[in-house]
Amino acid sequence: MFRYTGRALALVWATSPALLIGLVLLTVVSGVLPAAIAYVGARIVDAVVAAIDVARQTGHAGGLALYRPVLEWVAFEGLLVAAAGGATRMTSLCQALLRIQLGQRVNVMILEKALTLELTHFEDSEFYDQLTRARREASVRPLSLIMKTASLTQNAISLISYGALLIQFSPWAVTILLLAGVPSFIAEARYSGQAFQLFRWRSPATRMQAYLETVIAREDHAKEVKLFGLGPLLLGRYQKIHADLYGQERALAVRRDGWGFALGLIGVAAYYGAYAWVAISTVLARITLGQMTMYLALFRNGQGAVTSILTAVSGMYEDNLYLSTLYEYLEAPVAPPPGTQLRGPKPDDGIRFEHVSFTYPGAEAPALHDIDLHIRPGESLALVGENGAGKTTLIKLLTRLYAPTRGRILLDGLDLQGWDEAALRARIGVIFQDFARYQFMVGENIGAGDVRDFDDDARWREAATQGMAAPFVESLPKGYHTQLGKWFREGRELSGGQWQKIALSRAFMRNQADILVLDEPTAAMDAGAEAEIFAHFRTLMRSRIAIVISHRFSTVRMADQIIVVDQGRIVERGNHDALMQHNGIYAHLFSLQARGYQ
Ligand SMILES: Nc1ncnc2c1ncn2[C@@H]1O[C@H](COP(=O)(O)OP(=O)(O)OP(=O)(O)O)[C@@H](O)[C@H]1O
């Protein structure tokens, strides 16, 4: 129950010490006030009874002096009640402010962790569940845990002060008060555990539901969902998941509340038993009428406090379970950043693959097999092969998104693993075929290629010119400041080819990079644009390394070195003329495409 309380407390303290101190003080004040109010209530009744006696004896001749003690106590109770009300309000104010700050802080922690993760984490469904669980629930749990700890403390203080007053009546009364709530507490704790298990278990299903929501309700899927009439089918799936989950949730809720009610009756019975006892004691004149009012109030409040304590405790238990998912995620091991070297021993060596093999995590067959390759600065390389041959995988290895399962890749004579992360990233500019389409401004979409110049207007323009995006961008209503995508106000949508030109410009933002990798950069471009891009590309890449993956042989043939990949192996290599002469796969595919154009 207290496992994560310390950490949650540290987190809240780090978020706002002032608010936390405020909460603690308010907790103590709110804890003591109810008993004080009950005590003053008793003094009011006793003062009234005394005043009645005096009035009887003096024939109502006392005047203001007769009422004075009563009025003073009443005013005092009024003040205490006002103070209690103020304390409640201030608590909820502190709580609201902390909730906002803490929610943000935890979300930032979750996102910061996400930035340190590797690509493999994102492709691992179990890890994804963990991330989703942490995101869904954990951001509200630390505060909830603190508030419950506060409520626990406050009610414990109240209970102790009630006990101190009640013990004058009978120690047994205190015992009854404390024990009456225990059965419902045990039930509550048990069901909190089960609710958490259910939450954990249904993670994949809830994730599927969230995904279906995205598919049904987001613009990028809307076109297909409409045209293929997928809507009802997807909605049906969505509802089926709900129906499957609902059965379990209902069963748990029914059991939880059923037992809660049944065991709660024990508390009610104890309260009314004590009520009768106190009443009889008053009739027998063992206690005054004022004391009776106080003891009854103490019992009623005391029972409320016991219930609140038990709720807080089982809630804390539940919060701890949920926080465990947050810390499980935050503490998920990430590989330490591999290298620290800023340059290699042979700056003119370029890129070398030495017997590189790679199998995706969880996959059985290797995606790449015994790849040997050397690309020198100033050279261009084209990768050709059918779908799924392993071309993109080769690029993912080169960019160190994955590490080879066997063999090694060298840049400037230094193993990629030895390179400092930032130094390596700065050397390589890459655009994948599934490049991201950010719902930002056009300029920022280009600027994303180089964070240092993310906002630099002049650099955007330069890159856009090289990527052939400049003419159409400049014709947009707000030029480089036009918002893209439909999520935000005045967002414009671009055509497939225009997006590709943006992506290409993004790659050109890396003007310091001496390796440029383009994975099917021109597939969506018109033929004129493609020819121009490559003419341009060649002059630009004179002393650098250019790697292009393309299914268009008009592009491929311009490369100095062409590699044909088949089922993860290099099966042919050479320049266009050599490969044509060799009359193998390349020559076959080339002639096939050329014939199509005749
Ligand atoms: N993230 C991944 N996890 C597991 N397997 C993958 C992953 N990405 C690709 N694969 C598999 O690895 C193989 C090579 O894929 P790759 O994307 O490298 O092909 P490609 O040659 O680029 O194909 P295309 O021409 O269709 O783009 C395929 O069999 C594919 O199913």
Please explain how this structure is put together.
Helix content is 64%, strand content 9%. The chain is an alpha/beta fold and 598 residues long. Helix 19 (527-540) links the parallel strand 7 (515-519) and strand 8. The radius of gyration is 37 Å and the shape is elongated. The mean pLDDT is 86. Bound molecules: adenosine-5'-triphosphate (ATP). The site of adenosine-5'-triphosphate has 12 residues, from helix 13.
Write a brief caption for the model.
Keywords: ATP-binding, Cell membrane, Membrane, Nucleotide-binding, Transmembrane, Transmembrane helix, Transport. By secondary structure, this protein is of the alpha/beta class.
Binned strand content: 5-15%
Alpha carbon gyration radius: 37 Å
Listed once per kind, the bound small molecules are: adenosine-5'-triphosphate
Number of helices: 22
Low-confidence stretches: none
Give the N-terminus to C-terminus distance in angstroms: 76 Å
**Overall pLDDT metric:** 86
Derived structural class: alpha/beta
Instruction: Give the overall shape, derived from the CA principal axes.
Output: elongated
Number of strands: 10
Largest sheet: 6 strands, mixed
Name the helicity range: 55-70%
Give the strand line-up of the largest sheet.
Answer: 6-7-8-3-9-10
Any descriptors?
single chain, 598 residues, alpha/beta, four-stranded antiparallel β-sheet, 10 strands, cell membrane, transport
